[in-house]
Design goal:
The structure holds 2 protein chains of 2 kinds. Chain A has helices at residues 5-24, 28-33, 61-70, 117-120, and strands at residues 35-47, 52-60, 81-92, 98-110, 124-138, 143-152. By secondary structure, chain A is of the alpha+beta class. Chain A has a single domain (5-152), classed as Nuclear Transport Factor 2, Chain: A (Roll). The longest helix of chain A is centred in the first third of the chain and has 20 residues, at 5-24. In chain A, strands 2-1-6-5-4-3 form a 6-stranded mixed beta sheet. Chain B is α+β, with helices and mostly antiparallel strands. Chain B folds into 2 domains: 52-155, Rieske Iron-sulfur Protein (3-layer Sandwich); 174-410, Naphthalene 1,2-dioxygenase Alpha Subunit, Chain A, domain 1 (Alpha-Beta Complex). Chain B is built from 12 helices and 19 strands. Chain B has a 7-stranded antiparallel beta sheet, with no helix packed on it. In chain B, strand 7 and strand 8 form a beta hairpin. Classes of the chains: A alpha+beta, B alpha+beta.
């Protein structure tokens, strides 16, 4: 990769935004294509109720691939999720091999079949608020996620979700 | 039978009394208010776990039947509960979900519960120990001794859960639910437990519909995970055992977790005295659930907010002595099924939300069937029938016609 630091940061931002669009569009396999084989994903939150950092979900790339493969076998709320992501910082490691990024996100749920569709379908509700804390691997021809921590502010999660956030 | 006309739709089903309830028990605002008064203000509720207040002067806030409550660990290590209400002008005393009174507050001193509004202070036994400008305002007409907090019945029991009652004279806790806990008492009390998971759901449905879902396993047809890891002869042989006061225990069997792709056996981290991959569930009247799947304990507590609105608090627990690696494995086991992004909980919550959508306050009453009989095994609905029999007694209402006073099942049969 012969880019300067600013170029690399742009590529990292672009990869995070591309991941957002793929997740929004439920293109799970294409999202996983942006993830290295060593990828680790976790959804975490700190609970002031129990005064403890919690892991709500975590898995490897293989775990996630299995999970999305089995989604059709599960009943689920099909209300689409739309992520609004803003990349705040990108820090490229001194060796230029990895970068870390912190992004803020909100997730809106556009109701479809979660309650009574006659009344609720079409309404968008704020679903989640949090940050993505990402680590990406930088190689000559590609940028790949090696770690994503989804850090939620929410502890009220109502029906929750079967989908990666 | 083909689809029904209106009269046929509203007719009683060809089942025995007690095998259905009227949907008004889930939707009528007057019934809901009676439930808060007659049931939730009189029973024991496990409001939190002792590990949520591990140190002296730690506190945790909660509520029962609209009454704010504070639980705190005093300097004598005793866990006590009080109404979280200042005796002065009714301000909520502690606004945080948890914390420590070792730190001073802007209006008050360390080691005190301080009402921020006018700086009245209470010790952790609920005694009022400071009234700002006491003599100037009250002279000798009222003093600190007259204005202590409202102390509530509180016990730490059954694996370290903190049980609170708004009733000064409830049925003793051991008598209330000791027998259903027998199946897990050794496992839960062998060593200290610790909460590792908390989240809440506020769902547009009636609280009893959530408890019904925890009480019947027929809905396993909704859960792909349960079908592939469970459906076998041993599964269908699991017993639903009824206990006094409306409680039910669902008996155990060995779950084949590895039948679900990507999941693993939980045998290596079984709770003490629990055979590998066993699964017990205790459903307590009026809406609490203790669910032990081998390596992880789940506890649900409902807080009814309206006829069609309930808050459910979900906790996950492991052993306090867990290594970091053991704890992470337990967390994974818990979350893979029961977490907010797990496979089953989302489906359960979709189910009861869908029921809530058809049973809004003012919607037409209809019959909700609880009539499956399978020798009191897993798909028998005897657990719900047992619950609603108890509910009828506490409410003095007949579940299948809640405008009518309660009749014991035998009397109800004779009156048919």
């Amino acid at each position: 990769m012969t880019r300067n630091g600013a170029d690399v940061a742009d590529v990292v931002r672009d990869t995070i935004y591309r991941a957002t669009l793929l997740l929004d569009d439920q293109k799970w396999e294409q999202w996983l294509d942006l993830c290295d084989d060593s990828f680790h994903y976790a959804i975490k939150s700190f609970s002031p109720e129990i005064n403890r950092d919690m892991t709500y979900f975590q898995g490897s790339r293989k775990d996630l691939a299995t999970m999305v493969k089995l989604l059709p076998k599960h009943n689920t709320d099909h209300s689409p999720l739309r992520r609004h992501t803003t990349v705040y910082t990108v820090d490229v490691a001194d060796d230029g091999k990895t970068a870390s990024a912190v992004s803020s996100f909100v997730v809106y749920q556009n109701l479809l079949d979660g309650v009574n569709s006659h009344i609720d379908a079409g309404e968008s509700r704020l679903f989640l608020v949090g940050r993505y804390i990402d680590t990406l691997k930088l190689e000559d021809d590609q940028v790949r996620f090696i770690k994503r921590e989804v850090r939620l502010d929410n502890r009220r999660l109502d029906k929750g979700s079967h989908w990666p956030i | 039978m083909p689809a029904k006309n209106h009269k046929q739709w509203l007719a009683d089903p060809p089942l025995q009394p007690g095998e259905w309830v009227d949907s008004r028990v889930y939707s009528d605002p007057r019934i809901f208010e009676d439930e808060l008064k007659n049931i939730f203000r009189r029973t024991w509720i496990p409001v939190c776990h002792e590990s949520e207040l591990p140190n002296l002067y730690d506190f945790r806030t909660t509520s029962i039947a609209r009454e704010p409550i504070i639980v705190c660990r005093g300097p004598d290590n005793e866990v006590r509960a009080f109404l979280n209400v200042c005796a002065h002008r009714g301000m909520i005393i502690e606004r945080r979900p948890s914390g420590s009174f070792l730190d001073g507050q802007p209006s008050g001193n360390p080691k005190r519960m301080t009402c921020m509004f006018h700086a009245w202070q209470y010790d952790l036994k609920g005694n009022c120990v400071y009234i700002s400008r006491e003599k100037e305002g009250y002279q000798d007409r009222l003093c600190k001794e007259n204005v202590g907090l409202r102390r509530l019945r509180c016990e730490v029991k059954f694996g370290g859960f903190v049980w609170v009652s708004l009733n000064d004279n409830p049925i003793p806790l051991e008598e209330w639910c000791g027998k259903p806990f027998e199946c897990l008492r050794k496992s839960l009390e062998a060593e200290p437990l610790e909460v590792f998971h908390y989240h809440k759901a506020i769902i547009p449905t009636n609280y009893k519909l959530w408890h019904d879902t925890n009480s019947e396993f027929y809905h396993d047809f909704m859960h792909y995970h349960n079908r592939v890891t469970g459906f076998n002869d041993a599964y269908f042989g699991r017993k639903n055992e009824s206990f006094e006061h409306g409680h039910v225990v669902v008996g155990t069997f060995e779950v084949n977790y590895d039948k679900y792709e990507g999941f693993e056996s939980r045998a290596a981290l079984s709770f003490p005295y629990l055979p590998p991959n066993q699964w017990y569930m205790i459903d307590l009247f009026p809406g609490m659930n203790f669910n032990l799947r081998g390596s992880a304990l789940r506890c649900d507590v409902v807080t009814p907010l309206a006829p069609d609105k309930v808050m459910i608090e979900f906790r996950g627990l492991g052993l306090k002595r867990d290594t970091e690696e053991e704890r992470q494995t337990r967390v994974n086991h818990h979350n893979s099924i029961w977490g907010p992004f797990g496979r089953n909980l989302h489906e359960d919550l979709l189910g009861v939300t869908g029921q809530g959508a058809t049973m809004l306050p003012g919607s037409e009453p209809r019959r909700i069937l609880h009539g499956r009989r399978e020798n009191q095994t897993i798909h028998d609905e005897n657990g719900m029938r047992h619950y609603y029999s108890e509910w009828g007694k506490w409410m003095n209402r007949l579940p299948r016609d809640p405008a009518q006073p309660y009749l014991a099942p035998a009397a109800a049969d004779a009156a048919e």
